[in-house]
Write the structure tokens for this entry.
Amino acid sequence: MTKPFPHTPTFMTIDEPFRFEGELFDLEVEGTIPDELDGTFFRVGPDQQFPPKMGDANPFNGDGIVTAFRFKDGHADMQHRYVRTDRFLAERAARRGLFGDYRNPFTDDPSVKNIERTVSNTNVVAHAGQLLAMKEDGPPYAMDPRTLETRQLWDWHGRMKATSFTAHPKIDPATGELVGYAYAAKGGDSRDIAFYSFDRQGRMTRELWFQGPHASMIHDCGVSERYTVLPMIPQMMDVERIRRGGILFQWDSKVDQVYVVIPRDGEAKDIRFFRAPNALPGHVINAFDDGGKVYLDLPVVNGNVFWFFPDAQGRHPDPSSLRTQVVRWCFDMNSPSDTPTASVIAEISAEFPHVDDRYAGRPYRYAFMQASDWTKPYNADKAGPIMGFFFNTFLTMDMNTGKTKSWFAGDTSSTQEPVFAPTRPDGPEGEGYVLGVVNRRAEHRSDLVILDAQRMDEGPIATVKIPARLKYGIHGNWVPATTFPR
Ligand SMILES: [Fe+2]
């Protein structure tokens, strides 16, 4: 590589390229890591290997790099390794960026015409003996969960025919099934959606194809015992636009939120499309059902959070002007109405939710999230300007009341998505720990903090010191040691 990276917001402050792979054995700890923490916190984020071919890139275009924090007997070890996607390998061989703009193959170097473009930077999910590194514009890559070696592009033994797969599948804790979907499932900006289930051995048990009302982003899903809900975000896709040099997604404030409700054992004729006024449905907290009524909890924002996917006039709101409500939608499958009812659980800028995974798809009480608390101070002189997504607080939310217990990371810090680890397999819901990376922006370094999920406001019980900077990650998961026996 002979070119420098551009000095643009995607590549500045804590998001300067890091590009380092390695291992750290027995990390330094302040406080005490609980002995019962036995498992791995896997997380992934973008870290572009080479300067962008097009001069700049949006934050979602970077190569996926996975971190594994492995906990055993009060110790923590760390591995940090790129996903060896076909794209990563092609660019490494050429020692330069060959792929162009985000989800725009028309801007690629001709030499990579038939190479899979996905960068697997959005989520890492453990299923059927594999760690799947995922991004919604392509199939996952399977990795060895113990070494983080990349095994192969994963299409479930050739059974998964869609050209992409969500980065937010859900795992049914009762059956071990992985439930997911693909949008634009025949490529480009097709309205085709494919719904999939795979059993705990990774065998495909369900495949259902249908068309949505339009082609738009479907980033996450809710999965209850009997239903799957796909929130369609009013970010409209248009391949003709990227052919002309534009951006694949465009915010349209005239388009409704559409919630697609799919009976997990049903047929295409059983699918229902519910509509709610224009807004941005965020990450799904959880879903549950009573047979006829399906409930979906998620933050809903009153405008477009993706400043790099603006509207037709090139406009996007100032992030600090947006308002978030944590909403519980109810979709009544026995009513002919296509309007869901909504109850607002809380008004708080909280996102990147996790629940106690043993309660996924079931009635539950607790959510663990990060929040942007703009009432708290930020020392830009020491910590640098805020660019892009910014969160500074971890919280536990009681979904029955909307009340929260929170911990503010400090005026020179920002947080990344937290995960939840239960104290013991048969313990009560929400008894356990919240683990999350905190960026110490003034020190250009990161920590991993461990908080008591029920006493978040008391601060970390352990701080695992990382003598390096972990760029802003996207998603991750806690995986108990029993999932991948040593
Ligand atoms: Fe996501």
